[in-house]
Design a protein that fits this description.
The complex is a heterodimer of chains A (129) and B (107).
Chain A lengths: L2 E4 L3 E3 L5 E8 L8 E7 L3 E9 L4 E4 L7 E6 L4 E6 L8 E8 L4 E2 L4 E2 L4 E4 L3 E5 L2
Parallel strand pairs in A: 2-13
Antiparallel strand pairs in A: 1-3, 3-8, 4-5, 4-9, 5-6, 7-8, 9-12, 9-13, 10-11
Chain B lengths: L2 E4 L2 E4 L5 E11 L4 E6 L6 E5 L3 E2 L7 E14 L8 E7 L6 E2 L3 E5 L1
Parallel strand pairs in B: 2-10
Antiparallel strand pairs in B: 1-3, 3-7, 4-5, 4-8, 5-6, 8-9, 8-10
Classes of the chains: A mainly beta (129), B mainly beta (107).
Chain lengths: 129, 107
């Protein structure tokens, strides 16, 4: 079965860090970009960034750059999202997804990537003192 | 790129037909416009990619169309399980963006 399985819900205090994992199965993990998304009632679904497991290239939404680090471990077909300096506003549902197909990237932007056709089940993160 | 969806909420009966709108703030190739269905607390499910191509396993009651800056999703013969939020999404230029969604309630 083709799937992405995310790690479980987290409760953190402001200022702490966390790592969310996304384990892939049923397809060639190395050759598809993995995207990360944050969903809140106020801002909806926001793209945080994406990583390419084969060469560890990562691209970040400027809105999240500096607070997150994306990585992938090919040996266990798992991608990771690290979030630092958590705030209450980071309370959200986080998703990973697979981009079906790649496009082009410059230093600042990317174009024409494949649609996110496969999604993890989501990880609820609550940040509260 | 900003995607604006309308209407915000629809309440209809089973068997009806609905058309949802997604307006894009700048022209994009229809190749890079998708529609998703999302239920509370669940991951989005891909319905349509490339503006008009149904994803695997999606019934033909779901039809996407449009080009340039105006795209639509039509759902025929509504069923109770179609109650969800429908999201449009552009994957032409990063940062990839979603519309705010149209909530569909089946009475």
């Amino acid at each position: 079965e083709v799937r992405l399985a995310q790690s479980g819900a987290e409760v953190k205090k402001p200022g702490e860090s966390l790592t969310i994992s996304c384990a892939a199965s049923g397809y060639v993990f190395d050759k598809s970009w993995i995207g990360w998304w944050r969903q809140t009632p106020g801002k909806g679904l926001e793209w945080m960034g994406m990583t390419y497991p084969d060469d560890h290239d990562s691209r970040y939404n400027p809105s999240f750059a500096g607070q997150i680090v994306l990585s992938a471990d090919k040996s266990i077909a798992t991608a990771h999202l690290q979030i630092y300096s958590l705030k209450a506003a980071d309370t959200a549902l986080y998703f990973c997804s697979r981009h079906r197909g790649a496009g082009y990237c410059s230093a600042a932007n990317c174009w024409g990537f494949g649609v996110s056709d496969l999604w993890g089940q989501g990880t609820l993160v609550t940040v509260s003192s | 790129i900003v995607l604006t969806q309308s209407p915000g909420t629809l309440s209809l009966s089973p068997g009806e037909r609905i058309t949802l709108s997604c307006k894009v703030s700048q022209r994009i190739s229809s190749t890079y416009l998708a529609w998703y269905q999302q239920k509370p607390g669940r991951a989005p499910i891909l319905l349509i990619h490339g503006a008009s191509n149904r994803a695997t396993g999606i019934p033909d009651r779901f039809t996407g169309s449009g080009s340039g800056t105006d795209f639509t999703l039509t759902i025929n013969r509504l069923e109770p399980e179609d109650s969800a939020v429908y999201l449009c999404h552009q994957y032409w230029t990063s940062p990839w963006t979603f519309g705010q969604g149209t909530k569909v309630e089946i009475k």
